[in-house]
Amino acid sequence: MTDSKRILNEFYNLCVEARCDFDLYRSAFEQHPKQTTLCIDAAPFFFNDIARILTRYLVIHICRLTDPAGKGAKKNLTTNYIVTALPWPDKVRDHLGAANELLMTFRAKLEPARNRRIAHTDLHSQVNRLERMGTFNKGEDITFFADLQTFYDIAHRELFGTSAPAIAAAGSTDTHYVFRAFAKAKLYDRCYRCTDRQRNTDVLDLEDHYIG
Predict the structure, then answer these.
(1) What are the contacts of 139-146 at 24+ separation with CB within 8 A?
(2) φ, ψ (nearest 5 deg) of residue 206
(3) Is 61 exposed, middle or buried (CB count within 10 Å of its CB: 0-12, 13-18, 19+)?
(4) 135 and 77 within one domain
(5) 74 and 44 part of one domain
(6) Is the same domain home to 186 and 156?
(7) Which tens digits make up the pLDDT trace of 28-42?
(8) Gap between the Cα atoms of 126 and 16, Å rounded
(9) What is the rounded CA–CA span in Å between residue 29 and residue 27?
(10) How far is CA 9 from CA 30, 60, 167, 195, in A?
(11) Same domain, 123 and 166
C-alpha cells in the first residue's frame, strides 16, 4: 500500500468520527421537536451541557479536517494537505481543489468561534461576551458533510479505482433507545394502576441494578 493510500485511509477514519458525532447531535437535538421537549423536561441541565459539548467538538472536528496543510515536520492530515501534498494528476487536483473550496467556505463561518472561544480564549471576545460566533444558515452543516463525502470520493476513486465507502456509518447512533426509555418512564409515572409504593420500589431496584 502506498503512502498516499495510507494517508487517505486515515483521513477517512477522521471523517467517519466527525460524521458520527454530527449524527449523534442531530439525532438527539434535531430529530423531532418532541424529543427536544422530552430532553428539557427530563434533565435540562444535563442535555444543555451535552448539546454545548457536542456543538463545540463539532466545530473543532470541522476545523481540524480543513486546517492548513502545515510546513516542514509539522504537517496536518487535512483536506488542504491532501490537495497540495499528494501526487495527483492535474485534472484530479483541480476537482479536489474545487471540492475543498466548498469545505473552506463553511469553515470560514466557524473559524472565529474555534479560534476565539473554543480552542482559545480571546480576551476581547470573552470579556465582552461575544456569543454570536460560528453562525451559519440552516442546512449548511448538512451540506458540509455531503461536500466532504464528495471530496473523499474523488480522492478514493483516483487512488483505489473503486467507489468510496460512505463516511456516514449506518446505525452510528442509538439515541432512540434513550428517548424510548424517557417516554416509557413518563407513561409509567402516569399509570393510575401503579401505586407510589410500587413505583418507589421499582425505582430503587433499578438504581441497585445500574448504579449500586
Answers:
(1) 140/106, 140/109, 141/22, 141/58, 141/106, 143/102, 143/106, 144/62, 144/103, 144/106, 145/18, 145/19, 145/22
(2) -65, -45
(3) buried
(4) yes
(5) yes
(6) no
(7) 888 777 777 777 777
(8) 32
(9) 6
(10) 30, 20, 11, 57
(11) yes
By residue range, what is the domain housing residue 70?
Answer: 3-173
Neighbours of 26 (CB within 10 A): 15
Q: Are residues 120 and 204 in the same domain?
A: no
The model's confidence at residue 73, banded by pLDDT at 50, 70 and 90, is confident
Please report where in the chains the cell 475543498 appears, as a residue.
Answer: 100
pTM across the whole model: 0.81
How many independent structural domains does the chain possess? 2
* % of the chain beyond a pLDDT of 70: 79
Grid look-up 476581547 returns 124
- Do both 130 and 203 map to the same domain? no
